[in-house]
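Lab notebook page, bench 4
Experiment: in silico fold of construct C2
Operator: M.H.
Input chain length: 62 residues
Purpose: comparison with the prior construct
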Amino acid sequence: MPVYHPQSNDKVEVFNPSLKFHAQATATSNTPFAAVITDLLARFGAERLNPETLSPAEIMFN
């Protein structure tokens, strides 16, 4: 199993601050945390890949 090292994974570096922001926003609202996280995950999963900036391996395996 690989060691947890988010600095070497750009997707994790982008996702963690967004997760933190949404968690803090949920703490001050009446929206259930599960609903906010489900929405956040759906948005991250729906991002389009840009083939002009990705390597062939990234296109194939992401």
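Observations: The chain has one domain: 6-61. Residues 6-61 form one domain.
Next step: discuss at group meeting.
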